[in-house]
Design a protein that fits this description.
With 651 residues, the chain is mostly helical. The chain folds into two domains: 115 residues, no CATH class; 393 residues, no CATH class. The chain is built from 23 helices and five strands. The strands form two sheets. It has a three-stranded parallel beta sheet with strand order 2-1-3, with helices on one face. The protein has a two-stranded parallel sheet with strand order 4-5. Helix 7 packs across helix 23, helix 9 packs across helix 18 and helix 14 packs antiparallel against helix 19. The radius of gyration is 28 Å and the shape is globular.
């Protein structure tokens, strides 16, 4: 199978092709053999002599090896030529390669005229322009109309949607409120940076890239067989010894997806903290209002980004991969937008996602809807709270473990070359990564931390008189030990600070071990037992999340030291407020780049860091526009229009 995606350009009315293989340059042959994700299967010789047969094994010997019999190649040909013309010509040119076939699909070809005929959706752009004019008018009114000095002055609607007001709210310092945890802005920002870098790495590996051999576990045979072929054309092979699956750092980065669980921990902590404080203050919870506030908080900006993917993104660029990457995204968003707006896209049409990372919003929303019901149980008594939280945490560990064991899945997402960059084809991704019931563990860990801080608040600063490991029946409770830990961390008179000092390296070691296990799984994926897979699948996310909760706990109790100073650095606060919009727009920024590639990408750490920085800068600029024009104005309108006794939802 020799599949070529053709990018046509109108340069001549005649269709001409090279008559023989000698007109193809040596650099083009190197391009075919070495720079693409799927190297070409050669059955025959480059010179055409049957006596010089150099056949590669088309079937991978191991799971971590690439196929050797397929190459995707983009070429530019005159616009007058059709896909069938290209196929017939390539069949003639490659006739000497025994068993080699060519497939050229008409749908994969495009011309300049095709891009000119892309629907521009004038009504969509007219609505965008009208909305921006309204925002601009409100901003002018906010600048030139003086605000009264009255204390109970009600903000008019036009001032709520002003860009000037939005900027003030974005750059305002964080108030020292009871629910404020100073380390959260930094945790959000740094986690988001890692998420963007991870998505950039996935984007790089989902298309053509240089040094495709880097992702293989064993490529020695292939390299040796191609050495003599390339010597005939005077080409050199860059033989690197480091391969992604054999490199500890590379394997750890590839298994770094638990980092997104930080968002689940923060979300569960914030919502549970707010609900517990409201119940303690005697306020009644209006659950429908909580749900409505949450929906109005997230959906407007989300809907705008979905509309951009569905109606605007495809007309912004072009390239050999444009139809396959961006065209598919456009079709998915036009057909499945309703699953996103109902926050059920992690269960429905998971193989055709609109905005791939949006599964997180669906999971977080589904867990959000259960939290008020759990909070009502937590305030009944400590015994009830211990049973509820303990049971939920146990179930959140058991469900992914059982699914992994019964279905024979991998312990984690193992991005072998066949599914690298195409997660929706991985059964482990679909069965244990997307569903909310498999991602509940970190969220519940955040709720446990919130309840602990809530239940310990107001205790007298007396030192615990008993040891931390107590064996009397009435004292063996999780909450009692947490109370002892709280007294030990919070009050300077405690003489058990060694627990704090041991906690930092222990938690950091656990988090590193959870992600570094990817190296073991990638090396020995064929020898992992079902029990090992199930154990890791059930425990790795909660264990990683306990480390995140530990950082939040020590920072909240005043023991964060320089870590808390870094995470609470004031310039991170505005970026933290932009984090939701950055999360929404960064897939579009990345898609514009890798969807329009006309040359293979270089898979290297330097390239990954460099491109990730560019993604963050451009995404922040786009997020600022989205925040000032959509998220903040409509969120402020919701606060004005919703009843005053509404329980504010937090994300």
């Amino acid at each position: 199978m020799f599949h070529r995606t053709c990018l046509m350009s109108k340069t001549s009315s005649n269709c001409r092709y090279p008559r023989d293989m000698n007109s193809l340059s040596p650099s083009l042959l190197q391009h075919i053999a070495f720079t693409h994700t799927f190297p070409l299967r050669i059955s025959g010789s480059v010179s055409g002599s049957a006596s010089q047969d150099r056949e590669m094994n088309p079937v991978p010997a191991g799971r971590m090896e690439l196929r050797k019999d397929t190459v995707h190649w983009a070429v530019c040909i005159p616009a007058a030529c059709t896909a069938q013309d290209l196929k017939r010509t390539l069949d003639v040119l490659l006739n000497d390669y025994r068993g080699l076939t060519v497939t050229v699909e008409e749908d994969s070809c495009q011309t300049a005229e095709d891009m000119d005929q892309v629907p521009r959706y004038p009504l969509f752009w007219m609505m965008v322009l009208a909305y921006l004019l309204v925002i601009s008018l409100c901003t002018v009114m906010d600048i030139y109309i003086t605000q009264p000095e009255e204390k109970n002055y009600a903000m008019p609607l036009w001032r709520a949607v002003s860009l000037r007001s939005g900027w003030r709210r974005l750059t305002a310092p964080t108030l020292n409120m009871p629910e404020h945890v100073s380390c959260l802005p930094g945790m959000r920002v740094f986690t988001l940076c890692l998420v963007v870098a991870g998505h950039r790495g996935e984007a790089m590996t989902s298309g053509p890239f240089i040094h495709g051999a880097e992702v293989e576990q064993e490529l020695q045979v292939l390299m040796e067989k191609l050495m003599s072929v390339n010597r005939e054309y005077g080409l050199e092979i860059n033989r690197r010894k480091t391969k992604a699956y054999q490199d500890v750092v590379g394997a750890t980065m590839m298994n770094g997806h638990p980092v997104v669980d930080t968002f689940f921990v923060i979300s569960g902590f914030l919502l549970c903290s707010h609900l517990l404080r409201a119940l303690k203050a005697g306020r009644s919870l209006s659950i429908p209002r909580i749900y409505l506030a949450r929906y109005l908080r997230l959906t407007p900006a989300y809907a705008v980004v979905i509309a951009m993917h569905a109606f605007a993104l495809y007309g912004l660029s072009s390239g050999p991969l444009w139809k396959d990457k961006v065209g598919r995204e456009r079709d998915n968003c036009q057909n499945n937008w309703w699953t996103n707006l109902l926050y059920i896209n992690n269960y429905i049409h998971t193989d055709r996602p609109c905005i791939d990372p949006s599964w997180y919003l669906a999971c977080d929303t589904q867990l959000f809807m259960l939290t008020p019901l759990v909070a009502l149980l937590l305030v009944k008594s400590r015994r009830v709270a211990a049973w509820v939280l303990g049971s939920l945490l146990a179930v959140s560990v058991a469900i992914p473990a059982l699914i992994t064991y019964i279905q024979g899945l991998d312990p984690t997402i193992i991005p072998d070359p066949e599914t690298l960059g195409h997660s929706m084809e991985d059964p482990t991704y679909l069965a244990t990564y997307l569903p909310a019931y498999c991602r509940a563990g970190p969220y519940i860990v955040g709720m446990v931390l919130a309840y602990w801080l809530y239940s310990m608040k107001g205790n007298k600063p007396t030192l615990p008189k008993r040891k931390f490991l107590i064996f009397s029946r009435e004292d063996i409770t999780v909450l009692q030990m947490l109370e002892d830990l709280n007294k030990c961390f919070h009050y300077t008179g405690c003489n058990n600070k060694h627990i704090l000092y041991l906690g930092w390296p222990l938690m950091l070691f656990v988090q590193f071990a959870v992600t570094a296990c990817g190296y073991f799984f990638y090396q020995y994926s064929g020898s992992i037992t079902p029990l090992m897979s199930a154990t890791y699948a059930g425990l790795h996310r909660p264990l990683f999340s306990v480390g995140i909760a530990f950082i939040m706990m020590v920072c909240t109790t005043g023991n964060g030291g320089f870590v808390n100073k870094i995470l609470s650095y004031p310039p991170l606060v505005p970026l933290s407020r932009l984090s939701y919009c950055i999360f929404l727009v960064h897939p579009m920024v990345q898609m514009l780049h890798f969807g329009g590639l006309r040359a293979p990408a270089d898979i290297a750490y330097v390239s990954l860091v460099w491109l990730s920085i560019g993604d963050l800068v451009l995404s922040t600029a786009c997020a600022l526009i989205l925040y000032l024009t959509i998220e903040q104005p409509l969120e402020e309108l919701g606060r004005i229009l919703l009843p005053k006794n509404n329980s504010k939802s937090e994300h």
